Amino acid sequence: MPGANPTDLATATLPPKARSAHLLWWVNLALLPGIAVMVFTLGTAYLWQLAIAGALAVSIESACLLARGQSVRLALDGSAVVTALLIGISLPPGVSLWVLSLAVLGGVGLAKQLFGGLGHNLFNPAMVGYALVLVSFPAELAVWPADAITGATPLDIISHRQSQTFTEAVSSEQFGNWGGLPWQWINLAFLAGGCVLLVLRLARWRVVAGVLLALGAAAALTYDAGSSLSNGSPLYHWFTGATMLTAFFVATDPVTHPQSTRGQWLFGALVGLLIFVIRAYGSYPDGAAFAVLLANAAAPSLDHWTLTKTKDEPEAEDKHEDVA
Amino acid sequence: MVSTTLSATIGLLTLLVFSFAVLLAWANKRWPIQSSTLIEALNDALPQTQCAQCGYPGCRPYAQALADGQASIDLCPPGGAQTQQALARLMGVEPTTPLTDAPVLLAQIDEAACIGCALCLPACPVDAILGAKDYLHTVLTQECTGCELCVAPCPVDCIVMLEVTA
Amino acid sequence: MSTLDFLQPDPTTLFEQVAQAGIQGMGGGGFSTARKLRLAWQAKATRVIANAVECEPGINVDAALLAEHSPEVVQGLNIVMTAIGATQGVLAFAADFPKSTIKMLCQQFENQADREPDADSFAANQPSLSCTPITRTAGAGAERHLCQQLFGLSLEPTQYPIDRGVLCLNVGTLFAIQQAIVLGKPLRQRLVTVNGDTNWVSLGTPFADLLTLEEQPGAKTTRRYREGGHYTGKLSPPKAVVTAATNAVWLVEPATQTPCTYCSRCSDACPEALAPQTLHRLCTQPQVGAPSTQASPQSLSESALEANGLSRCTECGLCNNLCPSNIDLLGSFQQAKAQAREQALADARAHRAKQRHERHVSRTQARAQIALQRRESRRESRRLKQRGPDAWR
Lengths: 324, 166, 393
Description:
Chain A has two domains: 20-140, no CATH class; 169-305, no CATH class. Chain A is 63% helix and 0% strand. Chain A contains 15 helices and no strands. The longest helix of chain A is centred in the first third of the chain and has 23 residues, at 20-42. Chain B contains five helices and four strands; from the N terminus they run ααααβαβββ. Chain C has three domains: 3-187, Rossmann fold (3-Layer(aba) Sandwich); 194-209 and 218-252, no CATH class; 260-388, no CATH class. In chain C, helix 5 (99-114) links the parallel strand 2 and strand 3. Classes of the chains: A mainly alpha, B mainly alpha, C alpha/beta. Chains A and C meet through helix 1 and helix 15 of A and helix 4, strand 6 and helix 9 of C.
């Protein structure tokens, strides 16, 4: 039979396939706007802190992979650097090197590699590392000394004001209207980077929405126009402390949040609610790390409750329509 | 001030402990563990070969003995490791001597040697041997559990156990 | 012999000839064509679809066949329609075929439609032939989608097109039928897209031999191949050969597997709305809290797998092809499903054995009871006899 060599035939090409390492490096890139603003407001020393944390994380990861008999190349897949950057951002600038090292060791070594490496950790590694030093050495982490922000963060002030009204407390310093001016900019920058994650589908929007909505709702419900007992407006809570960083970069760690869509909503809401409760009623000024860790612990249960039930519901039909 | 807080704490905790103890005691009475459901669960975990290798005349009597605490969980060779672990979970104990998986066996009657004595028919716990007195016997391979109980009664040793591979 | 002889065949003889020629569905399903024809004939199917909508981009088998052999395909369609008594034939082809091919096809079908009805061959009614372009989207070439798109028939999940009077055959199958009936040639070769090039290949050719020219001799055994489309194709076992259903073979670039990052690309794409990442974790990781001596962690996670819908996985392979970590998700699902099947068989066997044993026990007990009663009554009657004949008074 005659051979047909249809070189002129339309050969539709496949979309390029994503690679895990590339995706993880995109997360690092998305952190850059926030980091840039932080370096701008807090000084270049901050850059060194992040660089040291990154180098430490990669070397610890390499050592662990070597000990576990795995390919050392996995240390450069970007996940260790994400953890290191998140730890470096969370710790105040100029923190002692040993505190930084301990946090990275706790994050990468303890929370991630001891649990079996990437994809096997139950808790967010960065938040484990941060929480470890936060509860162990509170004095080292209490201050955010920098030229741009004198003394404490707005959350500190609100936490420790005596009889000042909310507006007095915030406006008495050089804070802006919502959450202290530099913090607004930092949060806005992380929001911008976070949007990149959402567009690239590296973060689940349901988690982000859950965190922000729950935090906003809780703040709105208890908001009393700024008396001395006020906890601050939703806007204030959204743009202060580590809200945006947590909502977009920490809570959205896909390994440690539920896989079902309803579970992701609930997970986000739990994180948002816990952040508000710890901020408003806890002894720590910001509670993002603890909120995420507690919600991480709840994630498998959320999955268990929601995943098995969503099977035959409209969700499935939606997806069929997408394909057709 | 300190002593008041302390005594309040101690009082509160004692109260909590006591109330929970009462709650647990009541729940224990209200929802007793049904031994019959345990026997059923144990029986379901057993391979149902009815081979009596455990020393009990079948799987259900063994399950009964297990539930009564008279038998250990490592007496079922056909079930092997998997059954042992299932029993261990149900009984809440650790296996003492881990079993290995036994090969799956199937009885076969050498039809040239069979004399049609019908002695093996009642020996089969699952009625998997077809035949009658003075007629040729044969094994229903679909039903045979490989318990080997038919081998001993045969007067001419015409039943052999074949190992089933995958 | 004129063509009309083939257009007036005795259906059963034709089916026999098709079976003798070893023709199977060549679109990828590999179903026996003779059986399919017989089913359609019995169901009095009125419509026949000649399917040239290639399931996926990159495969050019149907396009190449039509470019060279569209008259034969149309003849095959006529043969089939006459044999089963169908009145409407539609050639569905992918809308992105080369312009020249499409033009040629349209002309061809106009000619067919205009042709004078022959009293002998079309005694009952004039069959209508047409061709329709179909846009290539995911699943466009599937029978169900074609029924929906061409005739507006939405099939119930349990229905096949034949249940609604539609017979769907791949153009390759029609060509093979034509070759078998008209020229008496059995199905011995087919068009296969091998790494992008479409050529005639003999059935039974090992995949390894399809690509020898490009390779070093030693690499042959270690290479892996994908059979079918980029998206829904499957990784083939090392010794796979070309069958009637093989439409494309691709050399798989060896990719290193990295850990799952739960990026959810698989669950976003899954047509069954499953969560492959969760299923994969359940398939491969021992359950948390399982005893360390556990021989098979699978047995524990089986119920969890079932709860997460493993049995609903259609093994379409989309997840595998999207995974950024190159994880063989489909492989682990197939393995888990096989294990579940084995377990189900063993469970069914055990259940039967249990029931039979229970019946055995109750029967032997009842028999013993009867024997006991008989013994008792015999003893009783003996006692009565000893006392004398009038003792009962």
